[in-house]
Structures are given as C-alpha cells and as structure tokens.
Design brief:
alpha+beta; Heat Shock Protein 90; five-stranded antiparallel sheet; 446 residues; Beta-Lactamase; 18% strand
Length: 446
C-alpha cells in the first residue's frame, strides 16, 4: 500500500512540475512577445533577467548583459538619476523615470522606466521606448522656439518700424515748422526792412531840414530883435498885431517846437535802426556781436507792450548785465530768440495781472560768463506758474496753450532749434511758485 502511495505521490509531483514548466514556458513566451523591455535586477542593480525586447531595442545580446550592472548601459548624463532611483527602491516605493540609454551602435535611446521593489531581494520593472515621443517633443520645442524667435524678431522689426516712423514724422513735423517759421521770418524780415527803408528816407529828409529850420529861425529872431532895437516904438497897427498874435509866446514856443520835432525825429531814426538791426538781412552769417545790444533792441521793440494803460499795470524790466565779451553767433536768429521769450513773458504777466492786482509784474534779465567759455542768459518773470506737464512739451512744434488764432506754437520751438542746433547751446525752462518762470540760454562764446 505504501509503494502505491509513493508512486502516486511521484506521479503527482511530475504532473505539477510539467504544469509549472509549461506555465513558465508560456509566461516566457508571453514576456518575450512584449514590445517593452522586462527586466529584473538585484539590490545592487545587476541584471538578472531580460526579455528579447532588450536586444530589439538596444542591440545587446541578453547573454552578454546578464550579471552586468544596468548602469553600464545608461548614458553618463543620467547616471545620477539611476543612483537616485536605486536609493528610492531601498524604501520599497515605485519609481517612474525617463532615462537615456546607449544603443550598441552608440545612438541614444530614450526609455521610460517603471520599477518597483516589494521588499524582495530583487526588483523588477519595464522599459518602454519613448524615443519617438522625445523626438516629437524636441521637434515641437524647436518649432516653438523658432516660432517665438520669429515672433520676437517680427515684434522687434515692428518696434523699429514704429520708431523709424515716429522719427520720420517728427522730422517732417520739424521740417514743416522750420519751413513755416523760416518763410514767416523771411517775409517779416523783408517787410520790416522795406518799412524801415521807406520810413528812413522821409525821416532823414525831416531830420536834415530841422537843422536848417532851427538856424533860419535863429536868424529871423536876430533880425526881429534888430528891428525892435532900431524901432522901439512900432506903428500902431504893427503893435496891435504883435499883441494879438502873441509874438513873445511864438518866439519862445517855436524853439520848444523845433526841439520837440528834433527829439521825435531822433526817436524815429532810432526805431528805424532797431528795425534794421532786428531784420539783419545782411547779417545771415556768423559774426561777433554785443549780446546786450540785441537784448536792448528787443526790449525797445516790445516797449509798447510793457507800458501801462487803462487796464494793465506797467511791466518792469530789471537788467543785471555782467561783463561779457562780444559773442560769435548768428545775431538775427538770437534776436528772434530774445523776442520770442520776452514776448511770452509779457503774455504770462498780462494774464496774471487780470487775475490779481496785488503784485508788481516784473521781468528780470541777467547775463554772465560760466566756465570761462559759456555765456549764460537768464530771462525770468513772476507770472503764472507753468505746469510740469506743459514744460515737458513746451519746445515741441505747434504746441501752444494760447487760444486759437493767438499762438502758432512755433516761437519756442524755433528758439530751441536756434540755440541748440545752430549755436550748439542749451535752452531750458523751469517754473516754480516761489521763483516764477525762467528760461536759461547757454551758448558758447566762440
């Protein structure tokens, strides 16, 4: 009976072994048929098992790999990732990592590793080829970078184009302003020169004849005196005429009349000279001039706006001239600058006068030499303060705060061009409630 039992037990064992062998064979066939790599490693990372997908993916024969460290086939740049994975596996966690492996031919193959350790002396996992995915990601990244670069380049080109367009528009605006102002000043200069010439001829005629009129009058008075000494008692009708016509008053007043006419003709001659100096059509080139004379001429031409009338107070002009040499400059253009700035100061003061009658409207003009080679001219007024937002645009062409028809917006723009571009100088403006508004002109002496 015992022999029968032993034989039965042996047959059962053989049957189980055959079934296990068949099951293992089927398992291996199944594993070998997988596209992903199935592997097993010991705790140190040495390979214990690989399926045929390993050779298909990386080219190495399985027999040459078994017993070798898996790290031998991982790219050097990812060795630290494999070391970190081994450390995590010691704690029994599942790790998923993308690693670069080296193909037998030296080509880099991207594999996604999924590996886990369940407290056993070895761990198992799978490797899936994701090289196509990585190439697609790299291509997508490259495409995005190229697209971003093109967009950035396009944006840069658009910014540059906008900048160039703005520069062109500014240049056109400046050119237009210069043309308008040049034509305006040219026409004004020709008109002023023509008026000065036409006035100068009759004034010279009157001025020259006044000398002879004074001499002739003195001669007539001397003869009249001789008659009075020779005939102290005139006939009744002559004496009556002397009394009725007030000959004594005529003798005294005629001298005053001629002197007054002389003063008036002198004043007219001075104004004509100022007009000629202001137009300076014969002085378009650079030359040495007395800056103080140019400022004084501008003040004289604007005197009618400085004097008081029934509505406004008189505007005081306080001059503090320093000792300065003649300056090498364009005199006609600088006179234009003085006229524009002083004229704007008068506008500001007249506006302030309408708002308050308690202050004395004043313009201060000072000159000095700074740093030995620069002439500094300051023109300040105590009118209304200019807001900072307006000061930032005060030298822009066609910018004006005056009502339509009262300002062209070219005066300060042209003044800036004359000082900065023609004379290589500086023109600045500051406006503070405690100090008023001041324009500072700096130009080189030579």
């Amino acid at each position: 009976m015992s022999d029968f039992n032993n034989e039965l037990h042996t047959q059962i064992q053989y049957s189980l072994i055959e079934k296990l062998s068949e099951s293992e064979r089927r398992y291996r066939l199944l594993v070998d048929s997988l596209r992903e790599i199935v592997f097993k490693c010991d705790r140190l990372g040495n390979v214990n098992f690989l399926n045929h997908a390993w050779t298909k993916t990386l080219g190495y024969p399985i027999a040459d790999v078994i017993g070798s460290p898996l790290s031998n086939f991982i790219d050097g740049n990812d060795q630290h990732l494999w070391e970190e994975t081994l450390e995590k596996l010691q704690t029994g966690v599942e790790v998923c990592q993308e690693l670069r492996f080296q193909h037998q031919t030296g080509v880099i193959v991207w594999l996604e590793m999924s590996v886990q350790s369940r407290g056993e002396p070895e761990f198992s996992g799978s490797l899936i080829n994701i090289s196509d995915k990585k190439r697609a990601e790299a291509l997508l990244k490259q495409t995005n970078e190229e697209l971003e670069a093109r967009v950035e380049q396009r944006n840069t080109e658009l910014i540059q184009a906008n900048h160039d367009l703005k520069v062109t528009l500014d240049q056109l605006k400046y050119t237009q302003a210069q043309l308008v102002q040049t034509e305006k000043m040219s026409s004004l200069g020709q008109l002023v020169a023509g008026i000065a010439h036409e006035i100068n001829n009759p004034v010279n005629f009157i001025y020259a004849n006044l000398i002879y009129a004074s001499e002739y009058t003195q001669v007539l008075f001397q003869i009249l005196q001789l008659y009075q000494e020779t005939y102290p008692v005139p006939p009744p009708h002559i004496e009556e005429a002397i009394i009725s016509l007030d000959l004594d008053f005529i003798q005294k007043d005629l001298v005053k009349l001629l002197n007054s006419m002389q003063v008036g003709s002198d004043r007219i001659r001075e104004i004509v000279l100022l007009l000629r100096n202001f137009s300076r059509l014969d002085e378009a080139e650079i030359k040495n001039v007395d800056i103080h004379a140019g400022i004084d001429h501008s003040i004289t031409l604007l005197r009618h706006r400085l004097i008081s009338n029934s509505d406004n107070l008189a505007i005081q002009v306080i001059k503090n001239y320093g000792v300065i040499p003649c300056v090498n400059c364009y005199p006609a253009q600088l006179n234009q600058v003085f006229m524009n700035i002083i004229n704007n100061a008068i506008d500001a003061l007249q506006e302030a006068i309408t708002q308050s009658q308690t202050f004395v409207p004043t313009i201060w003009i000072s000159t000095e030499i700074i740093e030995k080679f620069w002439l500094n001219i300051r023109i300040r007024n105590n009118g209304l303060v200019i807001p900072e937002s307006i000061i930032a645009k005060i030298f822009d062409p066609f910018f004006t705060t005056k009502p339509v028809g009262k300002g062209s917006g070219l005066g300060l723009f042209v003044s800036y061009q004359i000082v900065v571009e023609m004379h290589r100088g500086k023109l600045t403006c500051s406006s503070l409630a405690s100090q008023g508004t001041e324009f500072c002109i700096q130009i080189p002496i030579k």
